[in-house]
Amino acid sequence: MSRTHDGQHRQRPARGAFSVESVRSRFPALARADPFIFFDNAAGAQVPQQVFDAVNRHLLECNVQRGGRYPKSREVDAGIARARQTVADFVNAWSPNEIAFGMNATSFVRIVSLAIGQTLGERNEIVVTDMDHEANVATWLALEREGAKFRWWKMRDDGTLHAEDLDALVSSRTRLVACTVTSNALGSIVDVAAAAKVAHAAGAEIFLDCVHFGPHGVIDVREWNCDYLVCSGYKIFAPHMGFLWGRDEALRNLPTFREEFIPDEPPVKIEAGTFVYENVAGMRAAIEYLASLTAEMGSRAPVGSRPNLVQSMTAIRDYEEKLSLELLGILQECGATVYGIRNKERIRERVPTFCFNLPSIGPAQVTEAMSRAEIGVRDGHMYSPRLMNRLGLGIESGAVRVSLVHYNTVQEIARFAEVLRELSRDG
Ligand SMILES: Cc1ncc(COP(=O)(O)O)c(C=O)c1O
């Protein structure tokens, strides 16, 4: 135990854990909004001070176009190169050139799908899932005009995708499997390494939507052995932007749009035009923030290294497991229908993102009541209309989603629980 500045006793974080108080103090928006509770993180998370500082620094000190011979322009080039390396470490890429920066995840899925649409021959089948965000479904279905055929990898009733079910869907005609690493609605984590094995055994590629998993655990494109992966900055404590990782050879083979004088090489062949450099500076700072959590945990490894990131993201995952258990307990106590994994023994297979409904109150009424209590949660289809259909929910009403990240606390869950208990009693 140690004493805080106000003389209260505080539990020291366990070894391998970080202090949530200290984490929260690094996110100025949390204190500014107090007593508001941010429980809608799946739609976008807050950013730590160092991300603001990095964005501001860029705008104040080197807000010029890259590629010039003068120092400020060179500084922009160097900043982008450093950011590529940092993101490469974050996903465990082989090379920073496998990282492309751009607008958001959806536009990257579209860029890759437009390219793959031009390469369909005998292999014209694409596997999509009924659990994914629509960004990783509709973009592929749009290739029907190019002659693509589709196979549906369906979620099982336990609320997740099973790689064994993929086996029967792939063949020598499969060009690509497009699936999520984690459902943005249900929080279920997919065994993507097993899915990649099945896809590759059939000679197909695999495209992973890592947007929802991004803030919750270790991303490892080598271990997963995938071919493409997208993330959004605003889910991982960075500004609004996206990045794509692609296996070098896969990116080289993609026929993308580029001006004649742009080399047919990654990453520039994937990055048409100017992207938002200040946000790229913010993205690097966000990943450095994540890596720096290990210093809180007493690690002596050099800050910013891949081992640091692995340690931080593992600690986040362990902490969030406690949040998941707490939330699940409250939802079950209130008689909510929880969609997705709800078996406590399987809590490791999910992140603290829960979709639920109360028996006799509509989702919009629940989120309105939460809003009056200064708790931000969301209702609707979560951009996963096929999943809502699959769950037997109308897409206009859908479900309530509560989505937590590592700066959320058990105390916040207790306030959420008070409102939910009241609603379930009155309803
Ligand atoms: C799982 C998932 N995939 C894709 C997207 C789309 O990301 P973006 O807004 O960066 O295009 C989202 C956004 O919420 C998401 O949650």
Helix-strand pattern, N to C? EEHHEHHEHEHEHEHEHEEHHHEEHEEHEH
Spatial extent as radius of gyration: 22 Å
Shape category: globular
Q: What proportion strand?
A: 5-15%
Structural class: alpha/beta
Unreliable stretches, pLDDT < 50, 5 or more residues? Answer: 1-10
Q: What small-molecule ligands were found?
A: pyridoxal-5'-phosphate
| Helical residue percent band | 25-40%
**Annotation field: number of helices:** 15
The strand line-up of the biggest sheet is 4-10-9-8-7-5-6
* Alpha carbon gap, first and last residue: 43 Å
Q: How many β-strand stretches?
A: 15
Mean pLDDT: 95
Main beta sheet, described?
7 strands, mixed
Task: Quickly list its features.
single chain, 15 strands, alpha/beta, disordered N terminus, 15 helices, 427 residues
Structure notes:
By secondary structure, the protein is an alpha/beta fold. Helix content is 40%, strand content 14%. The strands form four sheets. A seven-stranded mixed beta sheet has the order 4-10-9-8-7-5-6, with helices on both faces. It has a four-stranded antiparallel beta sheet with strand order 11-12-15-14, with helices on one face. Helix 12 runs parallel beside helix 15 (410-426). The longest helix has 28 residues, at 306-333. The chain binds pyridoxal-5'-phosphate. Pyridoxal-5'-phosphate binds at residues 104-106, 133, 135-136, 180, 184, 209, 211-212, 232, 242, 383.
Short description:
This protein is of the alpha/beta class. 40% of the residues lie in helices and 14% in strands.
Please render the helix and strand layout as text.
Blueprint: E1 2-3, E2 9-10, H1 20-25, H2 28-33, E3 37-38, H3 49-61, H4 71-91, E4 99-102, H5 105-117, E5 125-129, H6 138-141, E6 149-153, H7 163-167, E7 174-180, H8 192-201, E8 205-209, H9 221-224, E9 228-232, E10 242-246, H10 248-253, H11 277-296, H12 306-333, E11 337-339, E12 353-357, H13 363-372, E13 375-376, E14 378-380, H14 385-390, E15 399-403, H15 410-426
Parallel strand pairs: 3-13, 5-6, 5-7, 7-8, 8-9
Antiparallel strand pairs: 1-2, 4-10, 9-10, 11-12, 12-15, 14-15
Helix pairs in contact: 3-11, 4-11, 11-12, 12-15
